Amino acid sequence: MVLLSAPLSAQEQGRADSAVACHAASGTERTFADMTSAVMWTCEPRGFQTDRPVGWLRFDATYWQDGASPRFFFSRIARFETITFAAIDESGAMRTASFAEDEAETFPGGPVFRLPLPELRPETQVLLVRIDRPHSAPLLAEARLAADPDSLHWSMTQMMVLAMVIGMLLLPLLFDLGFFAVLRERFVALHAVMVIAMMVYVLFAGGLISLVVSLPVAVVAIAGPLAWAIGCGVSALFLAKFLEEDAQSKQMRILTQATGIWTIIVPGFFALQLHATQAYDDRLYFYTFLPTIAVISAALVEAVLRGSRSARFVTVAWIPLILASIERLWRGLGIYVGPPELDLLLFVATGFEVTIISLAIADRFFAIRRERDEAVESAMELSRLSERDPLTGLMNRRAITARFPDLIAKGFDTFALVDLDRFKQVNDKHGHQAGDAALVAAAEALRVRGSRDSVPVRLGGEEFVVLLRGPDAINRVEALRQAIPLHVARKIPGLEAPLTASMGVVEMPRSATADMTFGEFYARADKLLYDAKKAGRNRMNFERLKVFSEAPPSRRPKRKRAA
């Protein structure tokens, strides 16, 4: 697969003793004897075929006669079934050596493998190489011979570029993990998967993995293109989740998600390079990426036209990657042959993309946090409003019912039920506006500024509750009751008579309040309030409940025993 890595260049590095002179392709029936006299050879550095069962390479002796005889065969890591060498002397004598895929040796020199050659003698005229089931054109196009087993490797500059790309990918991965810990958004997890896939791609496609461990050719050959397919597919899924809700039409969002699944499954399948699919998996791997490129490009254009801020970030990040992928795709399909420097573009574009997308995620992270903070603040405000009486600003019945157990636990053991006397007359004679003003004034009289030992509540209509704690609660609540007519008179001049209040007050010992509900307190206080109203209004009626730890002694006189 051409997407695996940058090709080697013998001319650039000056280390390869010979390069491919001619190449051909055939069925399995062709033998070395057939190929020595065949006229089917192509001696141009293009047109390498991977759709035939066998690929052939021919190295003429003129390519190594001026130097030491080659001892090793090098090429790009890709899947194959077997590679067989035939060194043919001038006399027609032939020495062969055959190797299976698992016998090829990877080494710390880039995305390449090596195999030993049969002996090349001074009289050797040609070296023929038969590659059964070649899965990649670069396996044929980038084959080299060398005398030194370590002669073919990437330059220090190229290795440093790849190491830099890995470093660029590592930092965004840490950002993703940190962001996901705070912001449990799926697009953050998808981006982390993207970064991991790109890291695997660079490690295997760039050959950096061989610096750490020597793996079989099949593992390295599959891991790179498979990671790329998974990374591209997850990118489409990421795009569908990352863009704002109104940045994509419903149809485009569904298409983008379907494209992500397609890319993981279809190119991912051809990335496995099964020998049963050898005739077509190389080209289909590239062709099946075309819908992915088209859909992602269309999705970005639509989102940018809709004014998406996130889409602008993604477009900046993905344009270099899309262009580098298209360029690599053209070369992978054999449309043209470019210089080896172009092969690093995809790696650099990958590092650039992940870095910019990380900045986009950070931007989106703060935007979502702002939206969530505003939503939480609005919800809290609505909750506060739902628990407050809109006229007086006091807590309402819903709020006190919900908080009553907590207030009891904090020592609010005095329950005062307040009702304004003859309030209906105020409404009837002075209007509801005056009645509302009277309710506000009464609430102000019940509210003790700066006190944490008094909680006033409006239950509804002209009925209030005051919860108190601390010493001398009865006298304090009576002072609040007496303050009501004075405060109303100051706030609403012109009333014909003072607006007084009646109270029913229940005081329960601290040890017993935990078992009392709001309804039970209210029922006792309401009876006391009724008695106060019946006794002439403008007064307080209270009871101080007692709790006995054991039954009180009986006062019934003892009977004398009969003699």
TrEMBL record:
Catalytic reactions of this protein: 2 GTP = 3',3'-c-di-GMP + 2 diphosphate
NCBIfam families found in the cross-reference section: GGDEF (TIGR00254)
This protein's name: diguanylate cyclase
Residues annotated as domain GGDEF: 411-545
UniProt keywords, alphabetically: Membrane, Transmembrane, Transmembrane helix
Record-listed E.C. numbers: 2.7.7.65
Keyword Magnesium: no
InterPro entries xref list: 7TMR_DISM_rcpt_extracell_dom1 (IPR011623), Diguanylate_Cyclase (IPR050469), GGDEF_dom (IPR000160), Nucleotide_cyclase (IPR029787), Rev_trsase/Diguanyl_cyclase (IPR043128)
Organism: Erythrobacter rubeus
Segments traversing the membrane: 159-183, 190-213, 219-240, 252-272, 284-305, 312-330, 342-362
